[in-house]
Amino acid sequence: MNLRLFCLALLFIVTGTSTRADDKSADGSVPVEPLARGGEVLLEDHFERNDLGEWKSIIPAFAVRDGVLASTQQRSDHGAVGRVYRDMGNVVVDFRFRLTGSRTFNVVFDDKNHKGSHAGHICRVTFAANSIRLGDDKEGVMRNDIFEMRRDANRRADADKLLIGRGSTAKVQLQQNQWYQATIEVVGDQMRVCMDGRPLGYLKSSGIAHPTKTSLHFTVSGPGVEFDDVVIRRAK
């Protein structure tokens, strides 16, 4: 019996336990398994051309050059915005990026028909040199009442109390001029981010479950970020 227990223990050490969909990372914060797999392709763009195609440079400047979607902030009051329109619900988004001078950019899901948040923002992921932040915009910083409260210095502290649980942050170290592969899964009220196949960020918040997203855009602050191989799929 003792020999049998020893063998079972050894097997456990070598193989580990099976990974379930609800298993988390070592610190308990990020599901190890994907929230969903990619299904029907809604958009696939490798930028093998010289024009923006379906992408709209809403706030300058985005352009396609040398086989990538390149961006540079030109306005001091807002980052450059490059947007593509698709009717989305639950999705898996894959893309590659590299920082070419900028330290931060956002990937934002919007619903132009939603009037309850600033500019119809629903949820976002902010990539920065030292962190990745996942945010529920619909019920968080972009919700109309909270957005207005945060612009008032006397009400900002009260607004911040309403933001508890509407965002999460993970630490990273992003280098300039290095390509990274990113995946964002949006399923129900959950959002998960992986980089180079490694689960890094996770957020569960009610606003993410908004049933429709009508566009995805990149917002770039600073000298530049390049994007490539953008694929949007329905979550399966």
SSE layout and pairings?
Elements: H1 2-15, E1 38-45, E2 56-59, E3 62-65, E4 68-71, E5 80-88, E6 91-99, E7 104-110, E8 121-128, E9 131-136, H2 144-150, H3 156-162, E10 167-171, E11 180-187, E12 190-195, E13 198-204, E14 213-221, E15 225-235
Descriptors:
7-stranded antiparallel beta sheet, 12% helix, 15 strands, mainly beta, 236 residues, 8-stranded antiparallel beta sheet
For the terminal residues, how far apart are their CA atoms?
45 Å
From the alpha carbons, calculate the radius of gyration and give it in angstroms.
20 Å
Q: What's the pLDDT, averaged over the residues?
A: 91
Largest sheet: 8 strands, antiparallel
* Overall geometric form: globular
The level of helicity is: 10-25%
Annotation field: number of helices:
3
What is the percentage of strand-forming residues? 35-45%
Strand elements, count: 15
Structural class: mainly beta
**What is the succession of H and E elements?**
HEEEEEEEEEHHEEEEEE
* Oligomeric organization of the protein chains: single chain
User: Spans with pLDDT under 50 lasting ≥5 residues?
Assistant: 1-22
How would you describe this protein?
The protein has 236 residues and is mostly beta strands. It contains three helices and 15 strands. The chain has helices at residues 2-15, 144-150, 156-162; strands at 38-45, 56-59, 62-65, 68-71, 80-88, 91-99, 104-110, 121-128, 131-136, 167-171, 180-187, 190-195, 198-204, 213-221, 225-235. Strands 1, 3, 4, 6, 11, 12, 13 and 15 form an eight-stranded antiparallel sheet that branches. It has a seven-stranded antiparallel sheet with strand order 2-5-14-7-8-9-10, with no helix packed on it. Helix 2 (144-150) runs antiparallel to helix 3 (156-162).
